[in-house]
Design goal:
2 domains; Nucleotidyltransferase, domain 5; Palm domain of DNA polymerase; 10 helices; 25% helix; 536 residues
Length: 536
């Protein structure tokens, strides 16, 4: 056990007198370095509050920290990415209601005998970026190995403390600016609603309009290892631009028609598609289906017709909205705030505003059909009717769930229109690109791009991100661009392989990927992901 304490525990000084905001704390755990098929064990845990830091070292560090934290006034304990990792070492701390989103614990309670209940939150939910985008010290993770860690104890503690301090700076800044929001999406929606109004939808309206909602366009036009001049272009803030410069439905559907009107937002049309419109299948979203019925936004429809990329046979139905608007004021407000923060060197707020701008549209599309409420209790505790156990861990705890009745059904038509507008911008740029090879939501990799605005910072303009002389394309989200021997950009979603390995896969080889870090389950067990990566 060890400690670095600047103030006595239990004294909270971060909030001014009269402010009802709860105290904020941060916590971090260091474990054995990741190694495939070995579940890492925690060996040191750190806790930071305004002006003070405490750590515990050794095999009992987690239990000792729990007793220490019990002496603090009830507050919010933030753990970055904790809902996917750290919290699985703390499951016996948890009690009461859990908020779980996409298998991530966002919020949970922690009972303490002496001071009431703390609330533990995953700060990644409000700040979905790696801590190093703000500040993070470096350490050689080999120094964390069991046989040598005691020799490097002081350096490890400094590293642990710095993570807690940097996270504290971020969390107190975020809460001070936006309040105790749970996710970046809810934060962005709250800020947008201060400026713009829109209607929520009924369950039936949501179901009818959800067919028009797709994500970003991710597509390769060529596959393999391609030599020759390559340029990477991307749009400055694609979704904020689509929100600002296009009109979107903000009310309920007004009427349907069998022809396009001035109020048309969505078109159900039959015809011949020449790479313009998306279709869903088991593999995701495709743009290469030639003939059929397509559900598209008016933005895509107009772009495809003007570019000669769609030949309509018949319009089946148009969905029309009298109530429409752009979100120009919201976008302009936060885009200007972001630029001001950048100019003043305030990297913290610059990051916040960036994610506020890019998170609002997605909240419109959230589907509450599969929302659940969760509780975690002692194995002997009865939680009431309607709750079904989903994980039972020996005689330690049980996690229950039941369908949630507490949700807001936002306007999926708005999200469908915004994402459709973004795809229309990309469609027009692809048509102007020389030798397009790959595209992803707001970017194009091609030989060259002309006939569009090229600018380093203008909202909605295209900028040249990088250049190369070779690209290896193995599939969606699996490519590498090289300039000589240097890789200037690569993507490998779902796996972590090197650019050179991506090139091998693009050439037809199969690469073995073993994920060193475990994926935890709610029953406390861990699984390790292994994949044979091949071109798709």
């Amino acid at each position: 056990m060890g400690q670095i304490v600047v103030r006595k525990p239990g004294i909270q000084t971060s909030q001014p007198s009269g402010n009802k905001q709860r105290p904020i704390y941060t916590l971090d755990i260091e474990t054995d370095p990741f190694e495939y098929m070995l579940v890492p064990e925690p060996f040191v845990i750190g806790f930071y509050w305004d002006g003070g830091f405490k750590y515990f070292w050794g095999k009992d560090c987690v239990a000792e920290m729990r007793d220490f934290i019990a002496g603090f006034p009830p507050g919010i304990i933030y753990i970055h990415n904790g809902g996917r990792f750290d919290l699985f070492y703390l499951m016996e701390w948890l009690t009461g209601k859990l908020m779980i989103v996409n298998s991530r614990i966002i919020k949970c309670g922690m009972n303490t005998d002496s001071s009431g209940a703390h609330e533990i939150r995953d700060s990644y939910a409000i700040m979905p970026f790696a801590l190093k985008q703000y500040k993070k010290d470096d350490i050689d993770y080999n120094k964390l190995k069991k046989r040598v860690r005691n020799k490097h104890r002081e350096e490890i503690i400094r590293y642990l403390k710095s993570d807690c301090v940097y996270l504290y700076e971020l969390c107190t800044s975020f809460v001070g600016r936006f309040g105790e929001q749970l996710t970046i999406g809810s934060t962005a929606m709250k800020e947008l609603q201060k400026i713009h109004k829109f209607d929520d939808l009924t369950e039936k309206q949501d179901a009818d309009l959800r067919a028009y909602y797709y994500g970003g366009r991710v597509q390769y036009f060529k596959r393999g290892v391609i030599k020759g001049p390559v340029k990477i272009f991307d749009v400055n803030s694609m979704y904020p631009f689509a929100m600002r410069d296009f009109s979107h439905p903000i009310g309920k559907p007004s009427y349907v028609s069998d022809e396009i009107t001035k109020d048309t937002c969505f078109v159900l049309v039959e015809g011949q598609n020449n790479g313009a419109f998306p279709v869903r299948d088991n593999s995701g979203i495709r743009f290469d289906v030639r003939n059929g019925i397509f559900a598209v936004t008016i933005h895509e429809y107009k772009a495809a017709i003007s570019l000669g990329l769609f030949e309509p046979k018949r319009i089946i139905e148009c969905t029309n909205f009298v109530s429409r608007s752009s979100f120009a004021k919201f976008v302009t407000t936060f885009y200007d705030l972001r630029n001001e923060a950048k100019a003043s060197g305030n990297d913290t707020y610059s990051l916040f505003y960036k994610f506020i701008l890019n998170s609002a549209y997605g909240k419109f599309a959230q589907n509450p059909e599969n929302y659940f409420d969760y509780q975690i209790t002692d194995a002997s505790e009865y939680v009431g009717e309607g709750w079904e156990p989903c994980f039972i861990v020996d005689d330690k705890y049980i996690i229950y769930k039941k369908p949630s009745m507490h949700f807001t059904r936002h306007n999926v038509a708005t999200a469908a229109s915004i994402t459709g507008a973004a795809r229309s911008v990309l469609m027009r740029a692809i048509a102007k690109a020389t030798n397009p090879i790959y595209c992803d939501t707001d970017s194009i990799i091609c030989e060259d791009l002309s006939g569009v605005e090229i600018h380093g910072s203008n909202l909605g303009a295209w900028k040249l991100e990088s250049t190369g002389d070779k690209i290896a394309v193995a599939g969606k989200k699996l490519y590498a661009v090289f300039n000589g021997k240097e890789c200037v950009k690569h993507a490998c979603k779902g796996v972590r392989i090197t650019p050179e390995e991506i090139e091998r896969v693009a050439s037809g080889d199969v690469v073995q990927f073993n994920k060193e870090s475990p994926s935890f389950r709610w029953d406390g067990s861990a699984i390790f992901i292994s994949r044979r990566v091949r071109a798709t």
